[in-house]
Design brief:
The chain has seven helices and 15 strands. By secondary structure, the protein is an alpha/beta fold. The strands form two sheets. Strands 3, 4, 5, 8, 9, 10, 11, 12 and 13 form a nine-stranded mixed beta sheet that branches. A six-stranded mixed beta sheet has the order 6-2-1-7-15-14. It is elongated. It binds flavin-adenine dinucleotide. Residues 11-17, 34-37, 42-44, 46-50, 148-149, 165-169, 173, 184, 186, 262, 264-265, 286, 288-294 line the site of flavin-adenine dinucleotide.
């Protein structure tokens, strides 16, 4: 890969940057990851995180299916933070069946919902999972260093291959005005014995969701376009609690043990494309919005393939 210090530099150490780093390092490349925030302080660490069902057409549908398959495989391996759980997907404004899923009988539909279907999907404990990715990166010879990168040119001299996985940071790093924050707030409660998830149609005003983990349940959801306030809003927390308790009465006995807020890196579509920066070939992989965990493996494998295919001829 030439005489530079590394074969690849990845900027960003959320779920996207770490997954791209793992894909490249596990193919034998010398990978350096630079990140302003270390994994535990990223948006990725705040994700619930459910690997969402695949209903999208085209490339996004393929990335979604790659996520479901890979996270289902990881769920069988200790220390990954992955598990597979049964639960319900529901909506208040449609009775249209969800393709490929078993519809719930009316008695399993919470009050106010017009549709509910059963699904079995992976759920990821992000703290454990980001540690797992970090270990895989270093086990494959990759390195992670805390560093703010102000322009991609600044790191182009270090490696022939670059990956820009800066999420919301791409607004400043590459001046992309289409990347916008969507604030998400969640309430964390003790787990009174809940072992199934519940997810209503995201982004409706009364969006209701909960995801069980060992010892805790994460309750959502919320979305605040262009809201960058990372302090929890107590009124919103009460509304989330009350909506979730209406669906799962056992949550009335749960104690609140935390609040978390994250800014989803939304964009009209994920940016996954190659650009030449100085003498390096750079792949941009950012703008995953509320589905970065779900899309991480599909987009990271494609990002790595784009870099490596080009590197044989262009770099
Ligand atoms: C409340 C909430 C719930 C969610 N639930 C789900 C879910 O259930 N399922 C799902 O799939 N997704 C979910 N998401 C979405 C998911 O969290 C994001 O899509 C994903 O974390 C984005 O990952 P990322 O690596 O692109 O960004 P981030 O995790 O934000 O990481 C970006 C990295 O880039 C670094 N960086 C930025 N700029 C620079 C710079 N100039 N120099 C150096 N480093 C830089 C940052 O420091 C960080 O390390 C949720 C999000 C929120 C907020």
């Amino acid at each position: 890969m030439g005489g530079r210090q590394y074969d690849a530099v990845v900027v960003g150490a959320g779920v996207i940057g770490l997954t791209v780093g793992v894909c490249l390092a596990e193919q034998g490349l010398r990978v350096q990851v630079y990140a302003r925030d270390l994994p535990a302080s990223t948006t990725s660490a705040v994700a619930s995180a459910m690997v969402e069902p695949s209903f999208s057409p085209g490339a996004v549908g393929e990335w979604e299916r790659a996520g479901i398959t890979t996270f289902t495989e990881l769920a069988g391996i200790d220390g990954t933070g992955g598990t597979v759980r049964r639960g319900r997907l529901a909506a208040r404004n449609t009775s249209e069946p969800l393709p490929g899923l078993d519809m719930c009988p009316p008695e399993e539909r919470p009050e106010g919902f017009t549709m509910a279907a059963r699904a079995t999907l992976p759920i990821v404990d992000m703290g454990v999972y980001l540690d797992h990715l970090g270990r895989r990166l270093t086990d494959a010879g990759g390195r992670l260093e805390q560093r703010v990168v102000t322009t991609l040119d600044e790191v182009a001299g270090e490696a022939p291959l670059l990956a820009n996985c800066t999420g919301l940071g791409a607004r400043e790093l590459v001046g992309d005005p289409t990347v916008r924050p969507v604030r998400g707030q969640q309430v964390v409660v003790t787990n009174p014995g809940v072992d199934e998830f519940f997810l209503s149609s995201p982004y409706e005003p009364e969006w209701t969701a909960y995801w069980p983990y060992p010892g805790r349940v994460i309750l959502g959801g919320s979305q605040g376009m262009d809201d960058e306030n990372t302090e929890p809003d107590p009124e919103l927390a009460e509304a989330i609690l009350s909506r979730c308790r209406a669906v799962e009465p056992r949550l009335r006995d749960a104690q609140v043990i935390g609040h978390q807020v994250g800014l989803r890196p939304s964009r009209p579509s994920v940016r996954l494309e190659v650009e030449r920066i100085g003498d390096s070939r750079c792949v941009h992989d950012y703008g995953h919005g509320g589905a970065g965990v779900t899309l991480s493996w599909g987009t990271a494998r494609e990002a790595a393939a784009l870099l490596l295919a080009g590197s044989r001829t262009a770099v």
